[in-house]
Amino acid sequence: MSELLLARWQFGITSVYHFLFVPLTLGLSILVAIMETMYVRTGNETYRKMTKFWGKLFLINFAMGVVTGIVQEFHFGMNWSGYSRFVGDIFGAPLAIEALLAFFLESTFLGLWIFGWDKLPKKLHALSIWMVAIGSNLSALWILIANSFMQEPVGYIIRNGRAEMTDFFALITNPHVFYQFPHTVFGGYVTAAFFVMGISAYHLLRKNHLDFFRRSFKIGLIFGVISVFAVTGVGHLQGQYLAESQPMKMAAAEAHWETANPAPLVLLASIDEKNRSNSFEVAIPGLQSFMIYNRFDGEVKGINELQAEAEAQYGPGNYIPPVTPVFWSFRIMVAAGSWLVLMALLSLYLWKTGRLETKPLVLKALIWTIPIPYIANSTGWYMAEVGRQPWIVYGLQRVEAAVSPSVSAGEILTTMIGFTLVYGVLAVVDLYLLLKFIKQGPSDTAAVGTVDSSAKGVSLWT
């Protein structure tokens, strides 16, 4: 295998692994802050125990996110020096601000929160976890500002073969950020909401700590219902924006080869990338035009026409991303999101009618729904990054020009195997710790009731 392919695999593996921890950190930090705020406002000890229990799970996840995130920074200098030389002045600025401002804020107040229990005044202690939550979300904002430059370069000139920043304000107000940031953070909030709901469902099924987990479920449910509709709405707007700013990515996501007006929405397809067509497809006429223009007509350019336009603009070459994985990752993301909307509405209805705890199948489904937001987040991110190919910076630098010329395939393969093995061990440790504390429950609260027959077989995946 070539250096380029191995470098892409290594970055993909480490990025997806890191991204497993980021969304839960974004959302769970806010949920823990809400729980502690309710404790400060009401003085109810249950909320204090909730803050400590969910806070412990947050800390385990946060630590893994930090460890795996550090590796990402080294990639740019080691395997992608061509990229760093070309856009380092621009890409490095938001990453530096993220480290010096957001991560510093997050880490400092996290230390105060961990060691400040019963030492700091209650309101100041609650403020600490809110600052952690704000820092986490600010960190995501700066990283997405950096990524948005790769998706839609703004505020630069090309001088001496390098991209140099000319307008910092344009960089931070990149229109791509206004869609990508809310879509990403709301995805994180959904992840945390279903994490809390699923674990609460596990304990409700087993009749453990009933008051504790009923309150936890309610907070997660309200947060989840709001977030799941927010991420869906923003995702729709983001799709409309991408159809204008990155039409090739959206055409690949729809396996839309020929320009059409009105354009059908392809639900399923057998994609023939070699002949640039679909050998079989199930499509709904006019629906893609409706999704983009909010009406059932309107031209949508196909991959073949966009390829011809790219060749005319950038010269001969293949400007078509891998259509099959982009197409199916998009559908997996949408299917996962639809399932989350369904479960959120069903849970809300059963909760409002007081029948949630009489529906063991729904509670069990909620436990198995915990991984679904992770699948949606990962496939959505995969589509966003792979759909940009062959560009590493859209319209400016191709991926093959970004890889380091002095790193051999053997060196990349060796480090990739090392990262994969270490990450595998870390995953086992992380899952072990999470399951241990989840099953243990709030340790300073007495369990209530006994496991009934409907909870048999409920063991949270073990």
From TrEMBL:
Taxonomic lineage of the native organism = Bacteria, Bacillati, Bacillota, Clostridia, Eubacteriales
Q: How does it sit in the membrane?
A: Multi-pass membrane protein
Segments forming a coiled coil: none
Q: What is the designated name of this protein?
A: Cytochrome bd ubiquinol oxidase subunit I
- GO molecular-function annotation terms? electron transfer activity; heme binding; metal ion binding; oxidoreductase activity, acting on diphenols and related substances as donors, oxygen as acceptor
Record's family?
A: Belongs to the cytochrome ubiquinol oxidase subunit 1 family.
Q: Which residues cross the membrane?
A: 20-41, 53-71, 91-115, 127-145, 186-205, 217-237, 328-351, 363-384, 412-435
The source organism is Desulforamulus ruminis (strain ATCC 23193 / DSM 2154 / NCIMB 8452 / DL)
Its GO CC terms?
Answer: cytochrome complex; plasma membrane
